[in-house]
Amino acid sequence: MRKISALLALLALSGACVPPAPSAGPTPTGQASAPMVDLVRLAWADVGVPTPFRVSTAGPGGAVLLTLIYDTLTWKDERGIIPWLATRWEVSPDGRDYTFTLAPGVTWQDGQPLTAEDVAFSFQYYAQHPYRWMNTAIVDSASVVSADQVRVHLKQAYAPFLEDVAGVVPIIPQHVWAKVADPNSYDGPDASIGSGPFKLAEYRSAEGAYRLVANAAYFKGPVTVREFQQLNVPPETRLQAAQQGQVDLVFNTDASVRDVLKDHPNLSVFETPPLSIVRLAINTERPPLDRREARQALAYALDRAQIAQVVTKGPPIVGSAGVVPPETPWFAPGLPSYPYDPDRARALLGGQRYTLELLADPTNREPELMQPMLQAVGITLATKRVDSKTRTQLLREKNFQLGLVQHIGVGGDPDYLRRWYAGEEANDFAQGSVFHDSRYDQLGREQAAMLDPAKRKELVVQMQQILATELPTIVLYHRRVYWVYDRTRVTPMNTWGGLMNGIPLVQNKLIFLRR
Amino acid sequence: MARLTLRYALLAAAIVVLNFTLPRLLPGDPLDADAPQGLNAAASTLTAEARAQLRAYYHLDRPLAGQFLLYLEDLARGDLGWSISKSAPVSQLIGERLPWTLALLLTSLLVAGSGGALLGLLGAWRGGRVDQAVVTLASSLAAIPEFLMAMALLLTLSVGLGWFPLQGGRTVFAPTAEGPFGVLRALADVTWHLALPALTLVLATTTAFVLLARGAVRAVLAEPYLTTARAKGLPERWVALRHAAPNALLPVLTLFGVRVGQVLGGAIVVERVFSVPGLGLFTFEAIRARDYPVLQAVFLLGSLGVLLANLALEIIYRRLEPRHGA
Question: What ipTM was estimated for this complex?
């Protein structure tokens, strides 16, 4: 215990090394402002070199870290899309031109002013050197209209643009990148200069640790945390690290943390909406699962509530047959729900017996739970356990019958419903889901171009109805992410539809600002 | 000597070919998403175009033979390539991790080697109950898999009692103090962090040294020169340490040399369990990510280490035992 206190003392000292701030320790300064905190430490992983061109795309961690260093034109709070670098925008009647008016007095972290030139340059540069986390191919051109206005011209009307492109793509400084021909290898001292609330102070590559310090000149007002650290802690010990006071923010998908920390003096648990999904990808081109009845039989045969309960140790959230998770903006209630009904499954199978092969990760527990349930209706489940890269390759090559996949990215803008089945993006998990339905494809194209939110919702609901009937994928359950946090240092928040394009992360930059 | 050099040169060439080929035989693609962060990002929205661009950037679009020639070209220039998963030069990434592996593995090897040899000598020399105890201890240690030992130590001493840190090689971002006091404090911090991983490695590698030293000493126990030494009236400890031990030491040194050669391969299991930022953990991550350039480089380093250690041993043997060279 003494050593831990010593460690804490050291860490507190490290916070004190940051340039002196007006006051030390918590200083409640009225209703509208949050108290100052010296240090917040997030336990996660190495997410690569923190520039838009070198950050890791293996998971969402890199893209999220960049949101603390860089800004985007729009942003999201708990309720929806909000102005950020752009204070307002106008959309042309055909939905192809967005004219953004920029906030005044924004500066880069090296003191240079952030201008309309920088914004236009960013989109032009990403056209040559793609931002790996978000596809900007929809942007045809970007041009400066006036000193504080930029017009982004799209190749076609694209409803998700404000949330998925303008709200995700980091705006980068022209004076840094204009001279860089190969951003994939650029490592100049200015490579991580953004306009965001935090400046990169240090990245320790071997240890995968990042130290960010508050940007004193941030255009959205004072940053309430002097230093933010992202530390590389393996998933197995993250909770213990929080319990021993070595980190202040960690996540978990196991609901039992709520009981573990019930009486903890300063740790609390924050639940996100169920933005993570566990589902069966189905190869609909291979018998017997090329038949809709066989897929429906599979759904009836599985007691998905029990599977969810056993694995997440929390109240089960049975998978929506329409894929979009409940509690998120685009969820369609009242879809066919396929409650556990082995008799109905047997009837749909018509007394036939089948053997199905399931691809799963070595650590997945679901196959053991599914196996007896399927056996009861005449389906023998042969589980083939492979690591995630192998599984991804087998799925992409359509060399599978059933694949158990779990992932995020289903809470934000619903255009992914179209992209998964359009084969348009190299989305590893979507590639395995093959689904041909002309009505669905048509609805997908219409919703992507529909700018009226109410009409778009109708189209997206219809898409979910088709999915729920045809079942090209069976969602076993939706998962919450449980964030353990030290309430004396940080207050997590839910972002509408998930951070950016549906990430169940709570370190929205708004929690580090006075609101 | 020329034949020896030729043999080792051929071996090195074979190793380069194997190291290039083996990682590419793994199923999976370095550009696919993975879940090393604990959340799968299925939403990774690399377009087919962006993916193709990245494939071309890393030359993954070329035929295998073309990739191999590029690799040889880079290697000839001393360039180990560019990591796909970490987006950084492989040589820089290895340079950052090598000191951790060296510190951890060399320290534990020294402790295990000397401690094990002494225990083996003690057992063989004393015989009877002492010998039984030594053999039992050594065999029990050998029976526990390394990962189990690591997990047990982590769970009891770090998670349970909190005496040791949960992970890492040092307190990250601890303030750096100036002067000798600061250096000492940093050293103490690293020692505290590496104590459990080093202990695991010591426990896991001691057995081989114990049994080898014991066997070697027992083999010389009946040698006439020991009888002569005793007949001269030398004390028993002196006979053991000055007469028996040196003659039994050769195989122990050999084992030590071989193990030093393996150091460059890192300790995958232990570094992974304790998150020591060394070459072992790096290799683990690279296998998972199918990061071909990293795998080529760490395998090359590891195998060259073994090769060099063997070469050195062969040369030393020729000096010590002229018959070896015949």
Answer: 0.87
Mutate to test the interface with B, among A17, A53, A240 (most CBs of B within 10 A): A240
pLDDT digits (tens, 9 = 90+) for B130-153: 999 999 999 998 889 889 999 999
Q: How far is CA B266 from CA B97, B99, B113, B261, B298, in A?
A: 10, 11, 17, 10, 9
Domain that holds residue A428: 276-479
Nearest alpha carbon to residue A61 among A513, A417, A499: A499
Describe the crossing of helices A453-470 and A292-301 by its angle, rounded to 10 degrees. Answer: 90
Q: Residue B167: closest CA among chain A residues belongs to which residue?
A: A233
Return the DSSP state at A48.
Answer: B
Q: B173, B273, B274, B281: which to substitute to probe chain A, counting the most A Cβ within 10 Å?
A: B173
Q: Which two tokens stand for residue A290?
A: 């090329």
CATH number at residue A355: 3.10.105.10
- Binary contact (B47, A425; C-beta < 8 A): yes
Residue A85 falls inside a structural domain? yes
* A392 membership: H or E segment, kind and range: helix A388-396
Q: What is the pTM of this model?
A: 0.88
Q: A110 with A214, same domain?
A: yes
Q: Specify whether A466 is located in the same domain as A508.
A: no
- Strands across the sheet containing A139-146: A86-91, A97-102, A149-154, A139-146
CA B258 to CA B255: how far, in whole Å? 5
Count of structural domains, chain A: 2
Are A468 and A508 contained in the same domain? no
A42 shares a domain with A121: yes
Yes or no, beta carbons of B45 and A133 under 8 Å apart: yes
Q: Please give the C-alpha separations between residue B306 and each of A359, B110, B263, B311, B312, in angstroms, as whole numbers.
A: 38, 17, 8, 9, 10
**Chain B residues closer than 8 Å to A208 by CB:** 277
Structural domains of chain B in order of their starting residue, each with its CATH number: 19-76 (no CATH), 94-325 (1.10.3720.10)
**A508 and A459 in one domain?**
no
Compare CB distances from A58 to B33, B49, B51 and report the shortest one's residue.
B33
Task: Verify whether the Cβ–Cβ distance B45 to A134 is below 8 Å.
Answer: yes
Chain B, 8 to 47: residues with Cβ < 8 Å from chain A are 26-29, 32-47
Q: Chain B partners of A504 at a C-beta cutoff of 8 Å?
A: 39
Is residue A213 included in any domain, yes or no? Answer: yes
To the nearest 10 degrees (0 to 180), the angle between helices A342-349 and A292-301 is 160
- Chain A CA closest to residue B170: A207
B-chain CB neighbours of A420 within 8 Å are none
Provide the 8-state DSSP code for A503: B
Residue A128 lies in a domain: yes
Do A356 and A494 lie in a common domain? no
Q: In chain B, which among 110-129 make CB contacts under 8 A with chain A?
A: none
- In this predicted model, what pLDDT tens digit does every residue of A202-256 receive, in sequence order? 999 999 999 999 999 999 999 999 999 999 998 888 999 999 899 999 998 889 9
What's the confidence (pLDDT) of residue A3?
41
Same domain, A206 and A319: no
Give yes or no: residues A293 and A395 share one domain.
yes
User: A45–B36: do the CB atoms touch at under 8 Å?
Assistant: yes
Cβ pairs A/B, distance under 8 A: 213
Q: Is residue A201 part of a domain?
A: yes
B82 vs A contacts (CB less than 8 Å):
185
Distance from CA of A240 to the nearest CA of B (A): 7
